[in-house]
Design goal:
homodimer, 692 residues, alpha/beta, Amino acid/polyamine transporter I, Rossmann fold, 2 domains, 3-stranded antiparallel beta sheet, 8 strands, 63% helix, APC family permease (chains A, B), APC_K+_Transporter (chains A, B), transmembrane helix (chains A, B)
Chain lengths: 692, 692
């Protein structure tokens, strides 16, 4: 494509190709599943371990609660899946949690969800990559000793990949995701077969005993511990909501296909979760929050040198054998699917930013879809936040998960509550009894979903607030406050610049234009600026030069005369060799003398090709311009002169324009802007749209 | 001054005050001495120590050579002073080494000197501050344990002070410099008195013996060692050349006063140097390159805990007693005068940059005198380089001095050689026998100066290259290469844009203007842009809006009609919600249809007051503008709308304009630009001057 230098052809074919490509990428279910499943399925890699970790506080005996906790998690999972199937049907245009909450519960609820989601994206990156590195570490010990380094490297790698704009395809998602699912199912099947045939399998930690931090817990304390374990297990639910944004990416019937895919994802996740926890209990996996002191080998702590591998790796080792080929395969697939899950956040964060920008909660330029710069900022910001978290928490997925689940459940709860309102509103006008029945059923599902996720949210906050959830809450508050401030700024500005209702009321119309061409030497850029300015037929025209060096000024005056230029040349003295101040003062003087006139200033500018050339040119012009713009009644015209080197930059700009934003495969083709079901949002929300 | 909000008054009185102030600051000799002496006198604080350090390699017995080495240094000092007295007379306009070398030896020699001086400025900061911290450390042990921290803090402090633009006065220089000179002379006098009265004084290291790294040196090795010690002692000569830039700052007769001051400085420096080394030998100061291992206390190394204080501090301790008031006074004055010496580099570096920019070796915007930004960049760069050196070399003045002297002697040698040429040239035309005699005498002095400093340069390179001087040479090469590349770029561009000799030859004159106002919404900024564009009476005028959101576009069209705006509104569709591409394509289409037309594009822009508001506005406008400028035949006009918040920025800009550049007291009042004696420089050298 970039070979076609003929511009019109390039545009035509370029466009045609792009539209085709987008048509092609509408996802069949077999590709949609991996595209949307990596995030939610990958949590299977760390959720079981978190459950065991918390239970270990009450000693190894508490492990027999773990299947029941996973069953509770499965119940929540099915509820959430059932609820989001309603979202998908109600918002086929791809209304995410932010939109559902904004539309049905008002902008504050929407903004809360948005803040929660942003925190969540950051944590998805941090947790997934930390966990991915831990899984790699079970096969490659290098990553155990260089955890933080590895995690930060992957964060940066994903950042660079996304900044460069990798052209995505469903296949890239499909291979690791299906490999992971296949691997886990093989492991479960092979494990069950070996148990059934009487083999005795032992996890690498099976010989250890757990030093219970508080043994013999009973009553309230035990319930609290079980609830904490349950909270940790709920990490498995992250990523389920992603599909509700992605309905437009599905083949028709979009909503139905999306709902089916969602059900499949839920089923897969629960099966894998149950299988892994069952095998973990059977193979006697032992995990502790502080393995160095709380895991005992023949009564003695294992010490700081001990590496606690993830549950999935330990189970795989027990089933397949240490460093066997299937073990390595599964560890690699797990790490890949976790990195893929992190990558989805790199896609989602800028998209959410663009939607928020449309509603003026973020700088409006983030709104323009497919705008590389908008995405770049979001991607770098996300990577930065995630890297900070990873470094602070030593790339320890267990500690990071403490922060994780709050955001997810905030958006679950508000989204489901919003859905109840949605159905209530539609029920007020709907008369078809069949449709009404359907709506009432949906409302019941969403109401239960909202209730259950709200309950989980409370449990998570109660059991985890002091363990780290406060960091997530603080992050949400900061995002919320920032976005509110930005929105307030835009509103204030838009009131300030609103045109008066009666035309002509705004201000006295200017009467004449006085044009000034700034001249330093008589070269081609200056001559071009002069000839353009003359074409504009303003009321008066003069050239202006600052006398910084008398020698140069004399040369200029002579040349001016020799060439017979018919524009008067005015020379301003500058005793301090400044350029900006004399021009500003002169312009202000003109404005004082005739306040109704407009001053139009022409500045010849060089267009260069490299950033370092910018340092060598136009600096005074830019500064002068910046200052001139503060003076009312002035307009500043750049008359560009394209230096030869500018060709390089032109090519770069073209390449940038052909860039395709990451994550486009998840969002589907560009449709008309979201308007469905937004009647409650202020109509001016799209103000940023065409703003230049 | 800043209280006068009435603009014309402020300008008038502001200007008047400034001219007065500059008149007042013409320096009488009693103030000129400290202003220019801090750099050269402060080296007295470290030069003697360096001599002893090197001699210690041959054991304590070699110390008896030290007075002879200082005498050799004194000879060089007097030679250099005598030589520069000729410079001062020949270049009363303040021609520094760079100018002398450029004018007389050509641009390459000039550029070599410039590179050497730049390296030298960086090292002046690093060495002076490191040594200042060491002197402070002799009184306040905190600075011994936190050397690097202290040095970097002082570097940053000076940077901030210079960035903010401290208003200088001769007094600020006078107090510490005279205090230092007074303190040293008191010490020498008191010391001699005590010796004369038979007191036995012992330095704190007098009881130590030196473990000679290579004892019993003889023949060539000894000569080499003595030459190395001499090279180190020559550090005392740095800063002498500074006065040759500063002649315009003196009261009349400028050259004579400058020459007298220079002689005084030389005399003071040599006296202090000799006095200190004599007292050091008498009080048995012991110093070693590696004190921890090479200084022995009763045969045993003193170990890493030992702090080797500077010679001047040890002598002061011997003469005045440890922690006595005169001792503390001298330590403080020494540190202050060293920091002052560093500060002169903060002044000199940007000034040199401005001269180099005038000759197009550096970005031309650095040339504008009194331009805050130009100074800021130079100051930050200097501080950055110095901080890096200080951190790398652990703020160890001894190790830094190894790098120091190369640059100084490169510029000494080239400057003196240039002076010989200068006299040769003048002798060719001069006929007055008295003047000729004078010139021949001056030439002899400069020739001897050039020869001697050249010899020292060779000695320094031979004895110190592997000890660190290679770093300085590398730095010079890098500066040289960068500046050559910048000069080449400017030359290429100026050839590219040079107007053809015959008027009208350059290109076909454009015939008509097609004006386009970019519109997103109908608010005041848009209305202003429309009314301005209408005033310009171009051949055709239309408004252009990008259809990003159909709803918004419809609103815009309705409002357009309701207000009865008499400019046609064109809507461009943008399927990808981009703004830049449709506009660019449209403009290119217009240009294709009528290539001789010029397209004039009006963009309404917001003017805001805070940097973060920039992030919220104008981003699309700026990007669009950047892209439009690549299209030939286009001019882009910003029609500003000043938001209320822009008032804050306007005030800030005014305050910035009132800022006075640091170092102005050393440069004297603004005169006409340097032209004297520049006949050999290419006449276009001042090209950057009025460039905007």
């Amino acid at each position: 494509m970039s070979k076609l230098t003929d511009l019109p052809k390039r545009i035509l074919i370029g466009r045609a190709l792009r539209s085709d490509r987008l048509g092609e990428t509408l996802l069949p279910k077999r590709l949609a599943l991996p595209v949307f499943a990596s995030d939610s399925l990958s949590s299977v890699a760390y959720a079981p371990g978190e459950v065991l970790l918390v239970l270990s506080i009450a000693g190894g005996a508490a492990y027999h609660y773990s299947p029941w906790i996973v069953v509770a998690v499965a119940v929540v999972m099915f509820t959430v899946v059932a609820s989001y199937r309603q979202n998908v049907h109600a918002y086929p245009s791809g209304g995410g949690d932010y939109e559902v909450a904004t539309t049905n519960l008002g902008p504050r609820a929407g903004l809360t969800v948005a803040s929660a989601l942003m925190v969540d994206y950051v944590l998805t990156v941090a947790v997934s990559i930390a966990s991915g590195i831990e899984n790699l570490g079970s096969a490659v010990p290098f990553f155990v000793t260089h955890k933080v380094l590895g995690a930060v490297a992957v964060i940066l790698l994903l950042m660079v990949m996304n900044l460069r704009g990798v052209r995505e395809s469903g296949t890239i998602f499909a291979i690791p995701t299906y490999a992971f699912v296949f691997g886990v199912f093989c492991m479960i099947a092979w494990g069950i077969l070996r148990i059934a045939t009487g083999h005795d399998m032992a996890a690498p930690t099976a010989h250890l005993t757990i030093h219970a931090e508080s043994s013999g817990l009973g009553g309230f304390a035990l319930v609290f511990l079980l609830l904490r374990a349950f909270s940790s297990g709920c990490a498995a639910l992250t990523g389920v909501e992603a599909i509700s944004n992605g309905v437009p990416a599905f083949r028709k019937p979009k909503s139905k296909n999306a709902a089916t895919t969602l059900a499949l994802i839920g089923l897969l996740a629960v099966t894998m979760l149950l299988g892994i926890i069952a095998l973990a209990v059977n193979t006697k996996v032992r995990m502790a929050e502080n393995p160095a002191t709380d895991l005992l080998d023949h009564g003695k702590p294992v010490g700081a040198g001990f590496t606690q591998n993830p549950v999935i790796a330990q189970v795989a080792e027990a089933v397949f054998g240490h460093n066997s080929i299937p073990f390595i395969f599964l560890a690699t697939a797990t790490a890949l699917v976790l990195f893929l899950a992190a990558n989805t956040a790199y896609n989602g964060f800028p998209v959410l930013g663009s939607i928020l920008a449309q509603d003026r909660y973020l700088p409006r330029q983030l709104h323009t879809r497919g705008d590389r710069l908008a995405f770049s900022n979001g991607i770098v910001l996300l990577a930065g936040f995630a890297a900070i978290l990873v470094v602070i928490y030593g790339a320890d997925s267990t500690r990071l998960i403490q922060l994780y689940i709050v955001g997810v459940f905030v958006s679950f709860t508000l989204s489901q509550t919003g859905m109840v309102r949605h159905w209530n509103r539609h029920l007020r006008t709907e008369t078809d009894p069949a449709k009404r029945r359907h709506m009432i059923r949906s409302r019941a599902i969403n109401a239960f979903g909202g209730f259950l996720t709200g309950l989980v949210l409370v449990i998570v906050l109660l059991t985890k607030f002091t363990h780290g959830a406060w960091v997530a809450v603080l992050g949400m508050v900061i995002f919320y406050a920032t976005m509110t401030a930005i929105r307030r700024h835009y509103t204030r500005v838009s009131e300030e610049i609103a045109a008066a209702d009666e035309p002509g009321e705004d201000y006295v119309l200017p009467s004449r234009v006085h044009s000034i061409v700034l001249v330093s030497k008589l070269h081609k850029p200056t001559l071009r600026a002069l000839s353009y300015a003359k074409l504009m037929r303003s009321d008066s025209l003069e050239a202006l030069s600052i006398n910084v060096d008398p020698q140069d000024t004399r040369t200029l005056q002579n040349e001016w005369q020799n060439r017979g230029i018919d524009v008067p040349l005015k020379i301003l003295d500058s005793p301090y060799r400044e350029i900006t101040r004399p021009v500003i003062d002169y312009v202000k003087g003109l404005r004082r003398d005739s306040p109704r006139d407009v001053v139009s200033i022409y500045i010849p500018e060089y267009v260069v090709g490299h950033w370092y050339e910018h340092l060598l040119h136009n600096q005074s012009a830019l500064r002068l311009k910046g200052r001139l713009l503060f003076t009312p009644g002035v307009m500043v015209t750049s008359v560009p002169w394209q230096l030869e080197s500018s060709e390089a930059a032109k090519l770069r700009a073209r390449r940038r324009a052909d860039w395709s934003a990451p994550g486009s495969i998840r969002r589907g083709p560009v449709g008309p802007p979201r308007t469905a079901d937004r009647e409650q949002v202020t109509p001016g929300a799209g103000a940023g749209s065409g703003q230049v």
